[in-house]
Q: What sequence folds into this?
C-alpha cells in the first residue's frame, strides 16, 4: 500500500496529483441506468420507446428516466470520446467515473477512452444502491464486501488488471437498506486499509447524509477523505446544510446542467437551477467551507450529451465558471473547487 501514498490512481496507473488539472469529481462515461426506469405518465407510453429526436428533447429533459434508450449511456462510447476531447480542449484534465457494480461498470472502455483522449480517468470501486445488489451481494458479510473493494483498488476490477482509484459512488437509499449498511461499513473498513478517497450517493432525504456519516464514523472511516454527492437535491435548508458541513466531509454539488419541473425520483423536491447552485456554492465559500466544496455534472443519461442537445462534460468550464465570476466568486476560489480540492481528496494518504 505504501506505493499508493501521495499518488492518484487512474485507469492507466499511478500519477502525481499535480498532473490532475481541472477535475470533474462525479461523472459517468459508460453505464446503464435501466435499474431506475420510471414508466411514463398515462398517454405518454409511446414516447418511452420512440427514437430520440428534436421534437421530443424537452419531454426527454423533463422525463429522462421514462425513456428506455436514454438510460443506455454505454452505447455512446464514440460520442463520449468526442466530448472528452472537447472537455480537454476547454481546459479539463481529469474525470472521476463513479460507475460501480450494479450500473454496468466497464473499466475496459474507461481505459480505452483515457488512452485515446489523454484525459485522466479514475474508476470507482464498490456497489450502487441496494435495489441493484444481487442475491450474492446481499448475502455477503462485511468482511467479504471489504475484500472485494480492496481487491478492486489493489489488483483490478471485473476480472481485469485495471485498478480503481476511489471507492464509490457507494449507493444509499432512504430508508437505508440492510445490504447498503453493510456496504457502508465495508467501505469504511476498506478505506482504513487503503487510506483512499471514498464518495457516497445519499438517499433522497435531508437526514440521509447525517445517517451515512454516523455509520461511516462508527466503522472507522476518515470523513475528511469522504465526498457526499448530490447535495443540490438533498439538503435545502441553509442552517441544516451548515450543520452538516461541520462534520468535515466534502460537499459535492454535482447536478450542474440538470433542471426539472418535476423530479421523477422525488416529486417533493424542487430541483434547483444552475444559478441557484452557484449561489449555494458561494454561500458555502463565504461561510468558510471553500476547502470542502466540489462540483460536477453527474452525466448518466444520453440526453445530457451534446450529441442529443445536452450540456455535456464541458458545461461547468464553458458556462458555469464565467457565471461564477459574474457572481463574485474569484478565480482562486474557482481553482480550489476544480483543482485543489479534487487533488486533496483523490490523493492516497
A:
Amino acid at each position: 500500500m505504501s506505493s499508493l501514498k501521495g499518488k492518484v490512481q487512474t485507469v492507466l496507473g499511478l500519477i502525481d496529483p499535480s498532473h490532475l488539472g481541472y477535475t470533474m469529481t462525479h461523472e459517468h462515461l459508460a453505464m446503464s441506468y435501466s435499474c431506475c426506469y420510471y414508466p411514463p405518465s398515462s398517454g405518454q407510453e409511446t414516447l418511452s420507446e420512440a427514437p430520440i429526436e428534436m421534437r421530443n428533447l424537452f419531454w426527454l429533459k423533463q422525463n429522462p428516466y421514462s425513456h428506455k434508450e436514454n438510460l443506455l449511456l454505454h452505447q455512446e462510447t464514440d460520442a463520449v470520446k468526442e466530448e472528452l476531447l472537447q472537455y480537454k480542449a476547454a481546459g479539463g484534465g481529469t474525470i472521476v467515473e463513479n460507475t460501480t457494480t450494479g450500473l454496468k461498470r466497464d473499466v475496459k472502455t474507461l481505459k480505452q477512452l483515457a488512452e485515446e483522449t489523454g484525459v485522466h480517468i479514475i474508476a470507482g470501486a464498490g456497489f450502487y444502491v441496494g435495489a441493484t445488489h444481487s442475491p450474492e451481494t446481499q448475502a455477503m458479510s462485511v468482511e467479504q464486501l471489504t475484500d472485494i473493494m480492496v481487491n478492486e483498488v489493489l489488483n483490478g476490477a471485473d476480472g481485469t488488471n485495471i485498478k480503481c482509484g476511489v471507492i464509490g459512488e457507494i449507493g444509499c437509499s432512504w430508508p437505508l437498506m440492510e445490504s447498503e449498511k453493510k456496504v457502508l461499513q465495508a467501505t469504511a473498513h476498506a478505506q482504513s486499509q487503503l487510506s483512499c478517497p471514498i464518495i457516497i450517493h445519499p438517499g433522497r432525504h435531508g437526514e440521509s447524509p447525517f445517517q451515512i456519516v454516523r455509520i461511516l464514523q462508527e466503522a472507522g472511516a476518515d470523513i475528511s477523505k469522504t465526498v457526499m454527492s448530490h447535495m443540490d437535491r438533498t439538503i435545502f435548508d441553509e442552517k441544516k446544510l451548515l450543520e452538516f458541513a461541520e462534520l468535515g466531509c466534502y460537499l459535492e454539488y454535482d447536478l450542474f446542467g440538470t433542471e426539472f419541473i418535476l423530479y421523477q425520483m422525488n416529486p417533493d423536491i424542487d430541483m434547483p437551477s444552475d444559478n441557484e447552485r452557484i449561489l449555494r456554492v458561494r454561500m458555502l465559500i463565504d461561510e468558510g467551507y471553500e476547502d470542502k466544496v466540489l462540483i460536477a455534472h453527474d452525466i448518466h443519461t444520453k440526453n445530457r450529451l451534446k450529441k442529443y442537445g445536452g450540456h455535456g462534460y464541458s458545461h461547468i468550464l464553458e458556462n458555469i465558471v464565467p457565471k461564477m465570476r459574474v457572481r463574485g466568486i474569484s478565480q482562486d476560489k474557482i481553482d480550489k473547487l476544480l483543482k485543489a480540492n479534487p487533488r486533496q481528496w483523490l490523493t492516497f494518504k
Q: What stands out?
A: The mean pLDDT is 97.
